Automatic annotation (TrEMBL):
This is Translation elongation factor EF1B beta/delta subunit guanine nucleotide exchange domain-containing protein. The keyword Repressor does not apply. InterPro entries: eEF-1beta-like_sf (IPR036219), EF1B_bsu/dsu (IPR049720), EF1B_bsu/dsu_GNE (IPR014038), Transl_elong_EF1B/ribsomal_bS6 (IPR014717). The lineage of its organism: Eukaryota, Viridiplantae, Streptophyta, Embryophyta, Tracheophyta. One of its GO terms (molecular function) is translation elongation factor activity. EF-1-beta and EF-1-delta stimulate the exchange of GDP bound to EF-1-alpha to GTP. Belongs to the EF-1-beta/EF-1-delta family.
Length: 74
């Protein structure tokens, strides 16, 4: 899971700041990575991050799905 988190955090874009993370148990010994991030809306969009970086090679080897738990705009 550390390699997986490092793979996600390796994505660097202007307007993207990674925050704290934790592993949350889902069931049957399976865990999911929950990670906070801050996005500057004028510089990038969450859709671009997900489609262009997280669900393409080599990250799609580790990432099955992306779920936005909370979305706040200031």
């Amino acid at each position: 899971m550390k390699k997986f988190e490092a793979c996600v955090r390796a994505v660097e874009m202007q307007g993207l700041l990674w925050g704290a993370s934790k592993l949350v148990p889902v069931g049957y010994g399976i865990k999911k990575l929950t990670i906070m991030l801050t996005i500057v809306d004028d510089l990038m969009s969450p859709d671009n991050l997900i489609e262009d970086y997280l669900t393409c090679d080599p990250n799609n080897e580790y990432i099955q799905s992306v779920y936005i738990a909370a979305f706040n705009k200031i």
